[in-house]
Design goal:
It is built from eight helices and no strands. The chain is elongated. It is mainly alpha-helical. About 75% of the residues lie in helices and about 0% in strands. Helix 6 packs across helix 8.
Length: about 220
């Protein structure tokens, strides 16, 4: 088993396998409670890990597709990350934002108001990927993807629980439905938070490692 796990990268482990194990285990525990008589249990560790991985993979891909249609459409999430604030950890300062836009515009021989947010982000991202340690942004990306999968899973589970409550109302089913809705909302906000932090960290790193460093050498 250890040798099998060594084959997985950190993204596969955190974003696919871990949520897959969690979702499959929860399904084994929760689905027998409902009225539709759904049995998803398998015997043996290897089949359990294989099924868990594919469950995680399915929700990861579905979550990615939905994210492209929702939070990533028209660069909504990127625009959130580019909002300036005095909180330098979770947001950019106005000084950082203006300096980054001016630097990228100069490198591309354009005015700062002529370049889009996505162009600025991609410029900064590719610089970081080529020249800096990416462990932090990889971690934030993995945690965001894991949270996205759980958010989608609990949304699906809450729909199933809602249908079951209508068929056969009981206190435990109503409580479980409320819990699944709450968990779906919680993991959705975690997904957004880690994705935004990844954007902000890329901009922070570019500003510190490229712009400030160049300024100090001049």
């Amino acid at each position: 088993m250890d040798r099998v796990l060594e084959k997985f990268g950190i993204y596969d482990l955190i974003a696919v396998l871990v949520p897959g194990i969690g979702m499959y285990t929860l399904s084994i525990l929760v689905l027998p409670i409902i009225s539709f008589d759904i049995n998803v249990q398998v015997d043996g560790m290897l089949p359990f890990m294989v099924v868990s991985y594919f469950v995680g993979l399915v929700f990861q891909e579905l979550g990615s597709l939905l994210q492209q249609k929702l939070t990533h459409k028209n660069s909504k999430l990127l625009k959130m990350a580019l909002e300036t604030s005095s909180d330098s950890h979770s947001c950019l300062s106005e000084t950082e934002r203006n300096a980054i836009y001016s630097y990228v515009a100069k490198e591309l021989h354009k005015n700062a108001d002529e370049i889009s947010d996505s162009v600025v982000y991609n410029y900064c991202k590719f610089y970081i990927l080529e020249n800096e340690d990416t462990s932090r942004i990889d971690k934030d990306q993995s945690l965001s993807a894991m949270s996205r999968s759980f958010a989608l899973y609990f949304t699906c589970l809450s729909v199933i629980m809602f249908a079951d409550v209508i068929v056969a109302l009981s206190l435990i089913k109503a409580v479980l439905m409320i819990m699944t809705i709450a968990l779906a909302v919680l993991f959705y906000y975690r997904c957004i938070r880690f994705a935004t932090l990844r954007y902000v960290y890329i901009f922070h790193t570019f500003y510190c490692k490229k712009i400030l460093k160049n300024s100090s050498l001049q």
